[in-house]
């Protein structure tokens, strides 16, 4: 299906030659789609009929793909700016295309349309390539599925841990950052505003740097390295070197200094994690152990959900909806979405606090706790301690397999229910751990080998008996098969 150049040509969904006259145009060409397509026509006036990947069975009819269309344009780049020729992909469906509640609830023209954004992607064109590859459309459908299933939106600076080459090749480009598209402007449609977020493919080392520091900082570095993205952040799946291998000074002079000065901008991750309350034996009431491998704890309350939601700035909310499933058999780990923090370091949402007084929520104070992480999640503990808590901030692990959440807080974080007097506290399956600066420094020394995963053998246990705290790093199978 190809959108036409104007009313006489019909448009997506109109079928081939079925009632494509100008009189029937308004009903056949959805207004929301028309608004986005107008911005595409502004950029590509010479490509009125771009190639498209189309959902055969639309999502609102029960199909698996949330995006109705992904248009693919040929962009000539900008030689003066050292921007190479590339393929430009634009999604249609995360915003409200129809305005009739078939997909998105219509909430008016002033706010966001649907989820408020569409995805774009710029892929370097290979020599002799006459047509755009279609795998980016599948990638965009995968991200869209995550958004629809979790109702979490993306923001500029977010990073997505994908754990597999984006095109299923042997490429080092295995993760993504998100940023504003450099050419596409926000569009006002009859159903609200649509912005355009561009996917940027990155290497594992660049993702880790974004986690340790922040996504926007790494995006700025990528813009300065032409072969790694350049000013328009074009993804080259054949790129064999990270920006730190291309320019070793970037790590020390920019990233390390940024981490030391700013701390980490990452306030939480989806993770394989669990925790046990060691304060009481398991045969007490079932609520005495918040999360125990093989038990079923009570669900989080709406208040607790809202607090974690605020902590992670519209991300990683607690719900029963699944994290994005693997796109194919090769992508076993699925997707982890890493969130930027809220504007203030507070665990309290003003709106929810007005509804349910904080003191009415039952807080359980624990004497001793055992934290459990898989290796990937455990490797982020030094980031949590050095980049967050030593800067007076908080960090949350949200389980991808259940309702469990573990939030580390420093003494300066507002709204925490863990205190220096009672450093371990829980609301149902949400555990908070307050760590003093002195104890953080000691933990960083004891956990130093987490920074060398190649020398790591599982399971691994760390213990601080006088603090009644134990941390275990366990194989993935423990979390994937909790009954074994």
TrEMBL record:
<keyword id="KW-0007">Acetylation</keyword>
<keyword id="KW-1017">Isopeptide bond</keyword>
<feature type="domain" description="Suppressor of fused-like">
    <location>
        <begin position="63"/>
        <end position="239"/>
    </location>
</feature>
<dbReference type="GO" id="GO:0000122">
    <property type="term" value="P:negative regulation of transcription by RNA polymerase II"/>
</dbReference>
<keyword id="KW-0832">Ubl conjugation</keyword>
<feature type="region of interest" description="Disordered">
    <location>
        <begin position="323"/>
        <end position="349"/>
    </location>
</feature>
<dbReference type="Pfam" id="PF05076">
    <property type="entry name" value="SUFU"/>
</dbReference>
<dbReference type="InterPro" id="IPR024314">
    <property type="entry name" value="SUFU_C"/>
</dbReference>
<protein>
    <recommendedName>
        <fullName>Suppressor of fused homolog</fullName>
    </recommendedName>
</protein>
<keyword id="KW-0539">Nucleus</keyword>
<dbReference type="GO" id="GO:0005829">
    <property type="term" value="C:cytosol"/>
</dbReference>
<dbReference type="InterPro" id="IPR037181">
    <property type="entry name" value="SUFU_N"/>
</dbReference>
<keyword id="KW-0217">Developmental protein</keyword>
<dbReference type="InterPro" id="IPR020941">
    <property type="entry name" value="SUFU-like_domain"/>
</dbReference>
<dbReference type="GO" id="GO:0005634">
    <property type="term" value="C:nucleus"/>
</dbReference>
<comment type="similarity">
    <text>Belongs to the SUFU family.</text>
</comment>
<dbReference type="InterPro" id="IPR007768">
    <property type="entry name" value="Suppressor_of_fused"/>
</dbReference>
<keyword id="KW-0597">Phosphoprotein</keyword>
<feature type="compositionally biased region" description="Pro residues">
    <location>
        <begin position="1"/>
        <end position="10"/>
    </location>
</feature>
<dbReference type="GO" id="GO:0005929">
    <property type="term" value="C:cilium"/>
</dbReference>
<dbReference type="Pfam" id="PF12470">
    <property type="entry name" value="SUFU_C"/>
</dbReference>
<dbReference type="GO" id="GO:0007165">
    <property type="term" value="P:signal transduction"/>
</dbReference>
<dbReference type="InterPro" id="IPR016591">
    <property type="entry name" value="Suppressor_of_fused_euk"/>
</dbReference>
<feature type="domain" description="Suppressor of fused C-terminal">
    <location>
        <begin position="253"/>
        <end position="473"/>
    </location>
</feature>
<dbReference type="GO" id="GO:0045879">
    <property type="term" value="P:negative regulation of smoothened signaling pathway"/>
</dbReference>
<dbReference type="InterPro" id="IPR038489">
    <property type="entry name" value="SUFU_C_sf"/>
</dbReference>
<feature type="compositionally biased region" description="Gly residues">
    <location>
        <begin position="11"/>
        <end position="22"/>
    </location>
</feature>
<keyword id="KW-0963">Cytoplasm</keyword>
<feature type="region of interest" description="Disordered">
    <location>
        <begin position="1"/>
        <end position="24"/>
    </location>
</feature>
């Amino acid at each position: 299906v190809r959108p036409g150049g104007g009313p006489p040509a019909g448009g997506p969904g109109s079928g081939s030659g079925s009632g494509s006259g100008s009189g029937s145009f308004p009903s056949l060409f959805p207004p929301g789609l028309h608004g986005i397509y107008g911005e595409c026509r502004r950029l590509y006036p010479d490509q009125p009929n771009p190639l498209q990947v189309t959902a055969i069975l639309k999502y609102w009819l029960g199909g698996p793909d949330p995006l109705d269309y992904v248009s693919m344009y040929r962009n000539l780049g900008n030689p003066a700016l050292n921007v190479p020729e590339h393929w430009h992909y634009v999604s249609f469906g995360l915003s409200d295309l129809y305005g009739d509640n078939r997909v998105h609830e219509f909430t008016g023209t002033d706010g966001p349309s649907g989820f408020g954004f569409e995805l774009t992607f710029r892929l370097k064109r290979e020599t002799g390539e006459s047509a755009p590859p279609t795998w980016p459309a599948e990638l965009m459908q995968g991200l869209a599925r995550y958004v629809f299933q979790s109702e979490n939106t993306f923001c500029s600076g977010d990073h997505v841990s994908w754990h597999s080459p984006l095109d299923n090749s042997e490429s080092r480009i295995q993760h993504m950052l998100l940023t504003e598209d450099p050419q596409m402007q926000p569009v006002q449609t009859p159903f609200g505003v649509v912005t355009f977020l561009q996917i940027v493919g990155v290497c594992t080392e660049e993702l880790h740097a974004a986690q340790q520091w922040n996504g926007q900082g790494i995006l700025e570095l990528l813009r300065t390295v032409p072969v790694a993205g350049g000013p328009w952040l074009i993804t080259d799946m054949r790129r064999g070197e990270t920006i730190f291998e291309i320019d070793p000074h970037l790590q020390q002079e920019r990233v390390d200094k940024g981490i030391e000065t700013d701390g980490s901008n990452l306030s939480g991750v989806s993770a394989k994690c669990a925790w046990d309350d060691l304060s009481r034996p398991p045969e007490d009431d079932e609520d005495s152990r918040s999360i125990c491998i093989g038990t079923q704890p009570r669900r989080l309350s709406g208040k607790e959900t809202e607090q974690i939601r605020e902590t992670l700035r519209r991300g990683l909310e607690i719900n029963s909806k699944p994290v994005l499933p693997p796109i194919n058999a090769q992508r076993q780990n699925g997707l982890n979405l890493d969130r930027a923090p809220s504007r203030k370091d507070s665990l309290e949402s003003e709106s929810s606090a007005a509804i349910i007084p904080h003191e009415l929520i039952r807080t359980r104070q624990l004497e001793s706790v055992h934290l459990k992480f898989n290796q990937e999640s455990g490797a982020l503990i030094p980031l949590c301690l050095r980049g967050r808590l030593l800067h007076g901030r908080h960090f949350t692990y949200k389980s991808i397999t259940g309702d469990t959440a573990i939030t580390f807080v420093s003494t300066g974080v507002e709204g925490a229910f863990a205190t220096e007097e009672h450093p371990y506290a829980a609301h149902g399956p949400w555990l908070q751990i307050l760590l003093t600066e002195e104890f953080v420094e000691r933990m960083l020394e004891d956990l130093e080998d987490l920074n060398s995963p190649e020398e790591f053998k599982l399971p691994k246990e760390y213990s601080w008996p006088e603090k009644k705290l134990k941390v275990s790093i366990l194989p993935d199978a423990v979390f994937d098969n909790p009954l074994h």
